[in-house]
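ok so dumb question maybe but i'm new to this and my supervisor (M.) told me to 'just get the structure for Hydroxyacylglutathione hydrolase' and walked off. so i did the thing. is this what she meant?? sequence i used:
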Amino acid sequence: MDVLAVPAFDDNYLWIIHDGRHAAVVDPGDAVPVLAALQAEGLTLAAILLTHHHADHVGGVVELARSAVSDEFPAIPVYGPAREQSRIKGMTVPLHGNDEVKIPSLGLSLQVIDVPGHTLGHIAYYSPQEQLVFCGDTLFAGGCGRLFEGTPAQMVESLAKLSSLPGDTRVYCAHEYTLSNLKFAAEVEPGNAELSTRIQRERAKRDQGEATVPTSIALERATNPFLRAKEKEIQESLQKAGRLTELNEVSSFAALREWKNTYR
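this is what came out, is it supposed to look like this??
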């Protein structure tokens, strides 16, 4: 099974998972580049998977579902979060946490994980078989999504769910935010040697025009401050900045997220 990145807008990645014949598309914010990629690769669309309702993730759903129909798939199922169904045009299969999505033409089974925080209904799709997770705007390479609807406590729990996946799980997030995220990470945990090495490696990728995604759960555990909010050095950085009043994980996370929101 292969995963193809389709760049869109300023920094989005729209993901196509395929076996060389059939494909599923994750978060098609724009149908045009996805349709072009499907045609270029000779792929037949079997399913659309959505993580949350934001326009840059669902804006192309209706056009894609209409334009990519085939004799084999005259009606393309559009999976997405049940809690956000009223906010997503074209969604046909509402999902809840612990549901399973089966795409027979790909021989693919995906577990649905509830990950509220960025939005209240946000979900992720995890395949133990393929060792990958599509997590939308919940977990980023070196960072996490803003809390537009959820609470810090919800996001801490959601990130913990993702962090508990096997370390070799490949993480397919939806944006190329890595260098700016790691710049902030180095601000709050300057003594992290693995983080310093990662920054050099990811900068070299971007200089060559390469994507820094996918990342891995193990790498995020080691270098992502939003998964490391309980680390002593991070909490000391927050205290020095006058941003931490209580020494617990949720307070540390909330302080990190507020700081990152205005960090340049």
